[in-house]
Design brief:
Strand order of the largest sheet: 1-2-3-4-5-6-8-7
CATH architecture: 3-Layer(aba) Sandwich
Order of helices and strands: EEHHEEEHEHEE
Largest sheet: 8 strands, mixed
Shape: globular
Structural class: alpha+beta
Number of helices: 4
Strand content: 25-35%
Number of domains: 1
CATH class: Alpha Beta
Number of strands: 8
CATH topology: Aminopeptidase
Length: 199
Protein backbone atom coordinates (compact mmCIF):
# COMPACT_ATOMS: atom_id res chain seq x y z
CA UNK A 1 0.00 0.00 0.00
CA UNK A 2 1.34 3.43 -0.94
CA UNK A 3 1.27 6.12 1.75
CA UNK A 4 -1.25 8.89 1.08
CA UNK A 5 1.14 11.74 1.93
CA UNK A 6 4.71 12.28 0.68
CA UNK A 7 7.53 11.22 3.00
CA UNK A 8 8.93 14.76 2.92
CA UNK A 9 7.19 18.14 2.84
CA UNK A 10 8.91 21.43 2.07
CA UNK A 11 8.03 24.06 4.65
CA UNK A 12 9.89 27.28 3.79
CA UNK A 13 12.95 27.32 6.09
CA UNK A 14 12.17 23.78 7.26
CA UNK A 15 11.81 20.28 5.91
CA UNK A 16 9.16 17.96 7.36
CA UNK A 17 10.32 14.33 7.29
CA UNK A 18 8.15 11.31 7.97
CA UNK A 19 8.68 9.72 11.37
CA UNK A 20 11.27 6.95 11.25
CA UNK A 21 13.36 5.22 13.94
CA UNK A 22 16.53 6.86 12.57
CA UNK A 23 15.37 10.13 14.14
CA UNK A 24 15.12 8.68 17.67
CA UNK A 25 18.26 10.33 19.04
CA UNK A 26 17.49 13.71 17.48
CA UNK A 27 13.87 13.75 18.61
CA UNK A 28 14.81 12.61 22.11
CA UNK A 29 17.38 15.42 22.37
CA UNK A 30 14.83 17.99 21.20
CA UNK A 31 12.24 16.85 23.74
CA UNK A 32 14.81 16.74 26.55
CA UNK A 33 15.99 20.29 25.78
CA UNK A 34 12.41 21.55 25.78
CA UNK A 35 10.85 19.75 28.76
CA UNK A 36 10.22 22.86 30.92
CA UNK A 37 8.18 24.45 28.11
CA UNK A 38 6.42 21.24 27.05
CA UNK A 39 5.58 19.80 30.47
CA UNK A 40 2.68 22.19 31.30
CA UNK A 41 0.79 21.28 28.11
CA UNK A 42 1.85 17.83 26.89
CA UNK A 43 0.97 14.65 28.83
CA UNK A 44 3.85 12.78 27.16
CA UNK A 45 6.43 15.32 28.40
CA UNK A 46 6.25 14.63 32.13
CA UNK A 47 9.46 12.60 32.46
CA UNK A 48 12.93 12.68 30.94
CA UNK A 49 12.70 10.81 27.61
CA UNK A 50 14.90 7.94 26.49
CA UNK A 51 16.15 7.06 23.03
CA UNK A 52 14.62 3.59 23.37
CA UNK A 53 11.17 5.04 24.05
CA UNK A 54 11.46 7.29 21.02
CA UNK A 55 12.59 4.38 18.88
CA UNK A 56 9.32 2.61 19.75
CA UNK A 57 7.20 5.74 19.24
CA UNK A 58 8.76 6.48 15.85
CA UNK A 59 8.41 2.87 14.70
CA UNK A 60 4.70 2.91 15.59
CA UNK A 61 4.28 6.30 13.91
CA UNK A 62 5.96 5.05 10.74
CA UNK A 63 3.48 2.15 10.59
CA UNK A 64 0.50 4.49 11.06
CA UNK A 65 1.81 6.74 8.30
CA UNK A 66 2.00 3.77 5.94
CA UNK A 67 -1.49 2.60 6.97
CA UNK A 68 -2.96 6.05 6.35
CA UNK A 69 -4.31 6.56 9.86
CA UNK A 70 -1.94 9.29 11.11
CA UNK A 71 0.85 11.35 9.56
CA UNK A 72 3.66 12.50 11.84
CA UNK A 73 6.79 14.37 10.82
CA UNK A 74 9.98 15.59 12.46
CA UNK A 75 10.92 19.22 11.75
CA UNK A 76 14.45 19.50 10.39
CA UNK A 77 16.48 22.53 9.42
CA UNK A 78 17.52 22.00 5.76
CA UNK A 79 21.15 22.94 6.32
CA UNK A 80 21.62 19.97 8.63
CA UNK A 81 19.88 17.05 10.31
CA UNK A 82 19.07 18.63 13.67
CA UNK A 83 15.52 17.85 14.76
CA UNK A 84 13.86 21.06 15.96
CA UNK A 85 10.37 19.76 16.71
CA UNK A 86 7.53 17.62 15.42
CA UNK A 87 4.16 18.12 13.77
CA UNK A 88 1.46 15.88 12.39
CA UNK A 89 -2.06 15.27 11.16
CA UNK A 90 -4.47 13.32 13.37
CA UNK A 91 -7.98 11.91 12.86
CA UNK A 92 -9.75 12.87 16.11
CA UNK A 93 -13.03 14.58 15.19
CA UNK A 94 -14.75 12.71 12.37
CA UNK A 95 -13.85 11.48 8.89
CA UNK A 96 -13.98 14.92 7.18
CA UNK A 97 -11.81 16.72 9.76
CA UNK A 98 -8.09 16.42 10.44
CA UNK A 99 -6.28 18.05 13.38
CA UNK A 100 -2.77 19.51 13.31
CA UNK A 101 -0.54 19.06 16.33
CA UNK A 102 2.88 20.69 16.67
CA UNK A 103 5.67 21.69 19.00
CA UNK A 104 9.08 23.25 18.45
CA UNK A 105 12.34 23.04 20.34
CA UNK A 106 12.70 25.79 22.95
CA UNK A 107 15.87 27.31 21.49
CA UNK A 108 14.22 27.93 18.09
CA UNK A 109 10.96 29.55 19.17
CA UNK A 110 10.29 32.91 17.49
CA UNK A 111 11.63 31.51 14.20
CA UNK A 112 8.15 30.89 12.80
CA UNK A 113 8.76 27.13 12.58
CA UNK A 114 5.38 26.05 13.96
CA UNK A 115 3.66 28.37 11.49
CA UNK A 116 5.70 27.03 8.57
CA UNK A 117 4.96 23.43 9.53
CA UNK A 118 1.25 24.08 10.03
CA UNK A 119 0.98 25.82 6.66
CA UNK A 120 2.67 22.87 4.91
CA UNK A 121 0.45 20.35 6.71
CA UNK A 122 -2.75 22.24 5.90
CA UNK A 123 -1.82 22.33 2.24
CA UNK A 124 -0.87 18.64 2.31
CA UNK A 125 -4.17 17.68 3.94
CA UNK A 126 -6.26 19.48 1.33
CA UNK A 127 -4.04 18.24 -1.52
CA UNK A 128 -3.69 14.56 -0.65
CA UNK A 129 -6.63 13.68 1.64
CA UNK A 130 -9.75 13.99 -0.51
CA UNK A 131 -12.33 13.34 2.26
CA UNK A 132 -10.96 16.21 4.37
CA UNK A 133 -13.10 19.36 4.36
CA UNK A 134 -11.73 21.01 7.52
CA UNK A 135 -8.36 21.29 9.23
CA UNK A 136 -8.40 22.05 12.95
CA UNK A 137 -5.82 23.34 15.40
CA UNK A 138 -6.62 23.05 19.10
CA UNK A 139 -4.78 24.17 22.22
CA UNK A 140 -5.47 24.92 25.87
CA UNK A 141 -6.95 28.36 26.49
CA UNK A 142 -3.95 29.14 28.69
CA UNK A 143 -1.47 28.40 25.90
CA UNK A 144 -1.65 31.79 24.19
CA UNK A 145 1.74 31.42 22.54
CA UNK A 146 0.54 28.40 20.58
CA UNK A 147 -2.63 30.24 19.53
CA UNK A 148 -0.49 32.69 17.54
CA UNK A 149 0.00 30.01 14.87
CA UNK A 150 -3.59 29.56 13.60
CA UNK A 151 -4.09 33.32 13.86
CA UNK A 152 -1.16 33.93 11.50
CA UNK A 153 -2.54 31.44 9.00
CA UNK A 154 -6.05 32.85 8.94
CA UNK A 155 -7.78 30.01 10.81
CA UNK A 156 -11.14 30.94 12.34
CA UNK A 157 -11.62 30.63 16.12
CA UNK A 158 -14.97 28.86 16.48
CA UNK A 159 -15.09 28.77 20.28
CA UNK A 160 -13.83 26.81 23.26
CA UNK A 161 -14.64 23.27 24.35
CA UNK A 162 -14.20 21.21 27.51
CA UNK A 163 -11.17 18.94 27.51
CA UNK A 164 -9.95 16.42 30.05
CA UNK A 165 -6.93 17.72 31.99
CA UNK A 166 -3.90 15.47 31.49
CA UNK A 167 -0.97 17.86 32.01
CA UNK A 168 -0.23 20.22 34.93
CA UNK A 169 -0.67 23.53 33.07
CA UNK A 170 -3.96 22.71 31.40
CA UNK A 171 -7.17 24.53 32.28
CA UNK A 172 -9.74 22.02 31.02
CA UNK A 173 -10.83 24.35 28.20
CA UNK A 174 -9.42 24.23 24.69
CA UNK A 175 -9.63 26.76 21.86
CA UNK A 176 -10.76 25.38 18.50
CA UNK A 177 -9.49 26.95 15.27
CA UNK A 178 -10.80 25.81 11.86
CA UNK A 179 -9.79 26.22 8.24
CA UNK A 180 -12.22 25.04 5.57
CA UNK A 181 -10.99 23.70 2.24
CA UNK A 182 -12.71 26.44 0.21
CA UNK A 183 -11.07 29.18 2.28
CA UNK A 184 -7.48 27.94 2.26
CA UNK A 185 -4.81 30.01 0.57
CA UNK A 186 -1.44 28.17 0.67
CA UNK A 187 0.28 31.55 0.64
CA UNK A 188 -1.78 32.24 3.81
CA UNK A 189 -1.43 35.46 5.70
CA UNK A 190 1.37 35.75 8.21
CA UNK A 191 2.32 38.45 10.62
CA UNK A 192 5.95 37.85 11.42
CA UNK A 193 7.03 39.59 14.56
CA UNK A 194 3.57 39.74 16.14
CA UNK A 195 4.41 37.07 18.67
CA UNK A 196 6.39 33.87 19.25
CA UNK A 197 5.45 30.45 18.00
CA UNK A 198 3.99 28.03 20.48
CA UNK A 199 5.89 25.13 22.00
Amino acid sequence: MMALLPDTLAAEALELRRWHPRYAEGLCAAVSASLPALRPWMPWAQEEPTVGEHMTILTEGDAKFEAGTEWQFVLVEPDGDRVVGAAGLHHRHGPATIEIGYWVRTDVTRHGYATMASRALTTAAFTHLDPIDEVEIRMDTGNRRSAAVPTRLGFRHTGDVDQEIDAPGQSGRWMVWIMERADWDPAGRTAWGTGPDGP
